[in-house]
Specification:
With 158 residues, the protein is of the alpha/beta class. The chain has 7 helices and 5 strands. Helix 5 links the parallel strand 4 and strand 5. It starts with 30 loop residues before the first strand and ends with a helix. The chain binds 1,3-dihydroxyacetonephosphate (13P). 1,3-dihydroxyacetonephosphate (13P) binds next to helix 3 and helix 4. One of its GO terms (molecular function) is methylglyoxal synthase activity.
């Protein structure tokens, strides 16, 4: 286990109330967050397509527009939508991490465009690092994570 896991209070190290036992226990039912900036949405849709069968049994949650784009491309996949990123969706995703309710974050960022909600982007990534949530910011890393879904599931069950 890591120093700070999803079921611990990061300050006290004590189990977070109400979260114990809610972690995913296998490669099915992983709770996956999907986020992509506008210029990277096509890349994310491509990644979802490549891993469609592996993603089908997972629980996917996306920021608003990203979720809509993925739903439009793959209507058979269940994707829960939060608010759009600039309107608070990134913060909602961060809250899921802080509450121990996200196992993986796939966040295809635009590295070339300044964002009005840059602080939210930074906060989301900071929480993913803090809570040791596997996070991918580009397709190559996301492929590695998807190939390791079973490993992540086993790790969460420990
Ligand atoms: O802005 C985003 C992440 O910072 C993504 O938000 P949308 O999915 O609503 O486009």
């Amino acid at each position: 286990m890591t120093d700070i896991d999803q079921e611990q209070d990061p300050e006290t190290g004590e189990a977070a109330p109400g979260e114990a036992g809610t972690g995913a226990t296998s490669s099915a039912g992983l709770r996956i967050g999907l986020v992509a900036h506008d210029s990277r949405k096509e890349a994310l849709v491509g990644w979802v397509g490549r891993w469609h069968d592996a993603l089908a049994p997972q629980e996917m949650t996306a920021t608003g527009t990203t979720g809509q784009v993925v739903r439009d491309a793959y209507p058979d996949l269940a994707v829960h939508r939060l608010k759009s990123g600039p309107l608070g969706g990134d913060q909602q995703m961060g809250a899921l991490i802080a509450e121990g309710r996200l196992d993986v974050l796939i966040f295809f960022m635009d590295p070339l465009t300044p964002m009005p909600h840059d602080v939210d982007v930074k906060a989301l990534l900071r929480l993913a690092v803090l809570y040791d949530v596997p996070v991918a910011c580009n397709p190559a890393t996301a492929d590695c994570i998807a190939a390791g879904f079973a490993v992540i599931g086993r790790r969460q069950a420990e």
